[in-house]
Amino acid sequence: MTETIRNHLLDAGCPEESAKIVERLCGDGKLDDALRQMKIIRCDLMEELHQSQRKVDCLDHLIRQTEKEIKATTERR
To answer: Which of 14, 33, 36, 57 is the most exposed place for a label (fewest CB within 10 A)?
Structure first.
């Protein structure tokens, strides 16, 4: 079962070392510690998601501004 947990963590983008830690904790029966570690990993992944979202938001803003400039330039002609 612990190998399955590690595979799921890796599929979720978890670093190999963190996945090994959780796998070891589960194997040792330290489920509370494993859960705590998984929550830390989740928080890290959520922060990465939010950083990516901020980048996408910036790009969306630039796209909208460029589209407005194109439209304004086209209307002046």
So the answer is: 57
Q: How many domains does the chain have?
A: 1
Extended strands (E) in 1-77:
none
Distant-in-sequence contacts of 24-27, Cβ < 8 A, 24+ apart: 26/1, 26/2, 27/2
What the block records as the tokens of 31 is 């489920």
Using CB atoms within 10 A of its CB, is residue 30 exposed (0-12), middle (13-18) or buried (19+)? middle
Look up the domain containing 33 and give its range: 2-76
pLDDT at 76: 80
Please, which residues have CB within 8 angstroms of residue 19's CB and are 6 or more apart in sequence?
5, 6, 9, 10
Cβ atoms 19, 10 nearer than 8 A: yes
